[in-house]
Write a structure and sequence with these properties.
A hairpin with a 5-residue loop joins strand 6 and strand 7. This protein is α+β, with helices and mostly antiparallel strands. Bound molecules: fe (iii) ion (FE).
């Protein structure tokens, strides 16, 4: 195996070097349109998988009844009925609404996490972990800046 092939094979095995997403989404904008539509932080999180600092989102402590929509395309993603305080500093839910989100493996240096994104626009929301409460045992750990709360 030549050196270049070895390098690309190794990077692929690590899940690195894959910057373009294979999926296409129902709601699609150009990069310039996303920049114009979103705040700088929401743009970095939704479109480039950045993470907001813990305990900075007002939605972390939001307890009113309502729904949490995608801040990118306004698709309803979570109900307040599945929200709980995980203590992590990020809005947390034990279940998304039906057909609202998709997931993909997110390989990293400390293991593979499961990335969560909006089904309609592909916007990055956060990650899901298996240390959540009943009945699902899941913890959808979301960036508040990726969500827009709509009180009911
Ligand atoms: Fe969306």
């Amino acid at each position: 195996m030549n050196r270049r092939l070895f390098l690309s094979t190794t990077l692929a095995a690590l899940g690195l070097g894959q910057t373009a997403r294979a999926e296409t989404f129902e709601f699609t904008l150009t990069d310039a349109e996303w920049r114009a539509r979103l705040s700088p932080l929401a743009y970095q999180v939704l479109r480039h998988e950045a993470t907001e600092r813990a305990f900075t989102s007002p939605l972390d402590k939001e307890t009113r009844a309502g729904r949490y929509h995608c801040a990118g395309c306004d698709l309803p993603l979570f109900s307040s009925q599945t929200k709980y305080d995980s203590g992590t500093g990020w809005p947390s839910f034990w279940e998304p609404l039906a057909d609202a989100v998709r997931t993909r493996p997110d390989p990293g240096l400390f293991g593979t996490r499961t990335e969560v994104h909006c089904r309609r626009c592909g916007g990055h929301l956060g990650h899901v972990f298996k240390d959540g409460p009943k009945p699902t045992g899941l913890r959808y750990c979301m960036n508040g800046v990726s969500l827009a709360f709509v009180p009911s």
